[in-house]
């Protein structure tokens, strides 16, 4: 998925994106990081063809979007978006139907629907709640239900808008573990959390005031404290990276190799 010199201005005149050019590497976990209002959600909507750019071109694996109805339907079969706010996505009377709905809309029936719904709900630990109305779920459960509804459709590309916002640490850990196991799926997630971007993304894009201001490997981009401060993401480097650098300076960890991205890896390095 690519954006080529994409600009987007809302009808009220707010310029949300200006000349953004970026390409999502296929099959990778990719973070879009930026402070509030930097244009992350707008970019997701453009990728899904919900908005058309004011200038520039949105491409899906090299092909520019034409916005014809059939093409948009095809695009939305391949690209799944999980909204930041679950209330924007949930519409069915029960948890089970919330997941089944998208499958029915695609012509799936009977036992196949049963199986796909069960698998998706079990993946997000909500199968036991399948008879409940979604509005009675907790916020974190609603977020996981939205993910299940999209996962059941087996998208090639998963767009996750702030996937861990509002989840407790246990849920966050299990969600990331689950997402790491989705082989072959390109995952693009938006966040303002440098620790999340560092530990989970393989590639990273930094948006600031609607512009793309950096991209690269998380360990390289997020290590630049002054730059991160300038673009409104605070001067704190990711905790694991910071500790690794301090321990290396103090000679507690032998130099060489790439920095660890998770606590477990840092501890393993310390234990030598
Ligand atoms: N419907 C709209 N009409 C007018 N302006 C909008 C609309 N939606 C978003 N904006 C503006 O567009 C800019 C980009 O918003 P967007 O939601 O894409 O940012 P974001 O990076 O996803 O922010 P957050 O991290 O807060 O979710 C902001 O200035 C926002 O106020």
TrEMBL record:
Membrane topology is: Peripheral membrane protein
Gene Ontology molecular function: ATP binding; ATP hydrolysis activity; ATPase-coupled transmembrane transporter activity
Coiled-coil annotated spans? none
Query: Is Cytoplasm one of the keywords?
Result: no
> Locate the ABC transporter domain: which residues?
1-234
**One GO cellular component, as annotated:** ATP-binding cassette (ABC) transporter complex
Q: Which UniProt keywords apply?
A: ATP-binding, Cell membrane, Membrane, Nucleotide-binding, Translocase, Transport
Recorded hits in InterPro entries, A to Z, give:
AAA+_ATPase, ABC_transporter-like_ATP-bd, ABC_transporter-like_CS, ABC_transpr_CbiO/EcfA_su, ECF_ABC_transporter_ATP-bd, P-loop_NTPase
Principal location:
membrane
**The keyword DNA-binding is assigned to this record:** no
Similarity annotation: Belongs to the ABC transporter superfamily.
Which protein, by its recorded name, is this?
Cobalt ABC transporter, ATPase subunit
Q: What is the lineage of its organism?
A: Bacteria, Bacillati, Bacillota, Clostridia, Thermoanaerobacterales
């Amino acid at each position: 998925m690519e954006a080529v010199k994409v600009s987007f201005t809302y009808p009220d005149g707010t310029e949300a994106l200006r000349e953004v050019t970026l390409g999502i590497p296929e099959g990778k976990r990719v973070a879009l990081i930026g402070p509030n209002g930097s244009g992350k959600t707008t970019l997701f909507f453009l990728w899904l063809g919900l908005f058309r750019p004011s200038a520039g071109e949105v491409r899906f694996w090299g092909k520019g979007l034409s916005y014809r109805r059939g093409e948009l339907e095809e695009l939305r079969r391949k690209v799944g978006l999980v909204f930041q706010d679950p209330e924007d996505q949930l519409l069915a009377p029960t948890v089970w139907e919330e997941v089944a709905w998208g499958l029915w809309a695609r012509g799936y029936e009977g036992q196949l629907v049963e199986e796909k719904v069960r698998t998706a709900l079990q993946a997000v630990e909500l199968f036991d709640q399948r008879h409940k109305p979604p509005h009675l779920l907790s916020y974190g459960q609603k977020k996981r239900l939205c993910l299940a509804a999209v996962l059941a459709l087996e998208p090639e590309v998963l767009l996750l808008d702030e996937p861990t916002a509002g989840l407790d640490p246990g849920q966050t850990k299990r969600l990331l573990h689950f997402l790491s196991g989705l082989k072959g799926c390109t995952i693009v997630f938006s966040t303002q959390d440098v620790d999340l971007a560092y530990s989970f993304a393989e590639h990273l894009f930094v948006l600031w005031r609607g512009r793309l201001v950096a991209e690269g490997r998380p360990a390289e981009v997020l290590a630049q404290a002054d730059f991160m401060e300038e673009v409104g993401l605070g001067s704190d480097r990711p905790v694991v990276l910071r500790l690794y650098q301090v321990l290396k300076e103090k000679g507690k960890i032998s130099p060489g190799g790439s920095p660890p991205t998770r606590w477990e890896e840092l501890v393993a390095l310390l234990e030598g």
